[in-house]
């Protein structure tokens, strides 16, 4: 990880700790999140409280090989993705859950979460972002 990523993670962890202290109690063992959704953030025009959205930028490389799709009709499109080239996606993150990054990434791409597919993916970097939507006036 680069210095910028470490600083971002440090700031996000501090903010999360501060917010977590004021929130309700959570179980000691977090859930595991395996479904990747696009990190599109739109602040509501009317919000009784401030809202915080978390996302991961996952930088990855797809190795040579065939990815198996979730839906058979997506086979050609999925396997047309560039190989051996750094790609990135921005995926929503749940700060109260453990992120199974490869599983979330495969779901986002429309690929099945199989050992063979996971072995074709190499994650080279993960960056974290927080968007804060203020409370409506």
């Amino acid at each position: 990880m680069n210095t910028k990523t470490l600083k971002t993670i440090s700031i996000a962890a501090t903010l999360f700790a501060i917010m977590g202290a004021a929130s309700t109690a959570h179980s000691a063992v977090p859930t595991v999140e395996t479904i990747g959704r696009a990190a599109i953030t739109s602040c509501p025009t009317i919000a009784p409280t401030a809202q915080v959205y978390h996302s991961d930028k996952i930088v990855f490389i797809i190795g040579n090989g065939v990815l198996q799709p979730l839906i058979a009709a997506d086979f050609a499109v999925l396997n047309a993705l560039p190989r051996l080239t750094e790609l990135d996606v921005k995926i929503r993150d749940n700060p109260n859950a453990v992120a199974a990054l490869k599983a979330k990434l495969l779901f986002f791409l429309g690929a099945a979460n199989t050992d063979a597919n996971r072995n074709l993916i190499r994650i080279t970097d993960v960056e974290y972002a927080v968007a804060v939507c203020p409370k409506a006036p």
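Residues 3-22 form the longest helix (20 residues). Residues 3-133 form one domain.
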